[in-house]
Amino acid sequence: MRQNLENKTALITGGSKGIGYGIAAALVAEGMNVAITSRSKSAAESASEMLNKIGKGKAFGIEADVRDFTSQEAAVQQVIEKWGKLDLLVANAGIGHFAPIENLSLAQWHETIDTNLTGVFYSIKAGFDALKESKGYFITISSLAGTNFFAQGSAYNASKFGVTGFTQAVMLDVRQHGIRCTTIMPGSVSTYFNNHEPNEKDAWKIQIEDLGQMVVDLMQMHPRTLPSKIEVRPSIPG
C-alpha cells in the first residue's frame, strides 16, 4: 500500500531551481508542504510562489546557506514553527568548479567541498532531532561523479565521492532511530548547473520531474523497505 503524503512536510536545500525545484514541485503536487532554501531570498520567494500554484501542498522560501550551520539550524526551525514537524529533508544544494588541478584555485576547492559535502553534513546535523521525532526521511543528491572520476573533476569528484560514502554511513547510523536514508546519483540532468541553460537539445537527458517522481516513489514506499543508493542514467546517451 502506497503511503499518503498529504500534510507531510519537507525541507529542500537549493530548491529554487533545477533538481531541487523539480523535487519540490512533485511533492507539492502530492499534497506535501515544502520549504525550499536558496542563498538568494528573492529566488526562494519567487520559486515558492510558483510552487503554490501547482497543487494541494503549500510552499515557502527561506534564505539560507548550507555552508553555515547556524543558517541550516534556522531553516529547520522555521519549518517546525510553521508546520510542527519535518518528515523529509533533501540535501540537494550543490555547485561545480571544473579545472585541471594546476588551475583549480583554493577558493574553488573550498567552495565546492563546503557546499557539496560539508553542507550535507550540516543539513543532517541540523535536522536530525526533527527527523528522529517524525521517523522521517533523509535524501542526499549525489551524482554518478560520486563513483566515476574524470579529468578536471578533482574538486567535484571529491565532493560527490564524499557525499556517496557519507550518506551510506549515515544510513547505517540513522536507521537505528527509524529514519530512512537514501542517496540519489543522477547522470546528465537538464538543469542550470554549471551555467547551462536548459533547451530542446536536452530532451535525451534526465528531466527534473523524473527525479521529483523518484522522490515521491521513495516517500510512498512501505517504510520496511529502503533503496539506500540509486544510480540514475539517461536511457540513451546523447
TrEMBL record:
The entry's protein name is SDR family oxidoreductase
Please give the NCBIfam families that the UniProt record associates with this protein: PRK07326.1
PANTHER family recorded: 3-OXOACYL-(ACYL-CARRIER-PROTEIN) REDUCTASE (PTHR42879), 3-OXOACYL-[ACYL-CARRIER-PROTEIN] REDUCTASE FABG (PTHR42879:SF2)
> Where does this protein come from, organism-wise?
Shivajiella indica
Residues in coiled coil: none
What PROSITE patterns does the annotation carry? ADH_SHORT
Span of the signal peptide: none
Gene3D superfamilies xref list: NAD(P)-binding Rossmann-like Domain (3.40.50.720)
Q: What InterPro entries does the database record attribute to this sequence?
A: KR_dom, NAD(P)-bd_dom_sf, Sc_DH/Rdtase_CS, SDR, SDR_fam
Similarity comment: family membership: Belongs to the short-chain dehydrogenases/reductases (SDR) family.
